[in-house]
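Hey, weird one. I pasted the Single-stranded DNA-binding protein sequence into the form twice and got a warning about non-standard characters only the second time. First submission, copied straight from the form history:
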Amino acid sequence: MPQNIAEFRIIGRIGKITPRDKVIYVTVAANYNRRDGDGWKSDPHWNNVVGFSNVREQIEAAGKGDLVHITGRMRETSHGEGNEVAYRTELIADTFSVLAKAGGEE
């Protein structure tokens, strides 16, 4: 039977790591280049990823500016009632690895 999936993959640099009781949040910038007149301009896209026990230790060992590779699944959540419902797409990390430390060779 075919499996329905919603997955993501991010390769980017860590902006911030925020540990909480049972989860850890990591903000990662993936840079895209876009044309700006005759040149090119960097256009960072910031992604907020949540990690649970399976990847928490790897995320805690990483640091700001590290180049990382994260894969995982996407889940949409909602809260509120009636016309006041807000939706959010969560990026949940299944794998996390540091590709290069900040300031190091890539």
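That's the output from the first submission. The warning seems to come from a hidden character in my clipboard, not from the data itself. The first strand starts at residue 7 and ends at 19.
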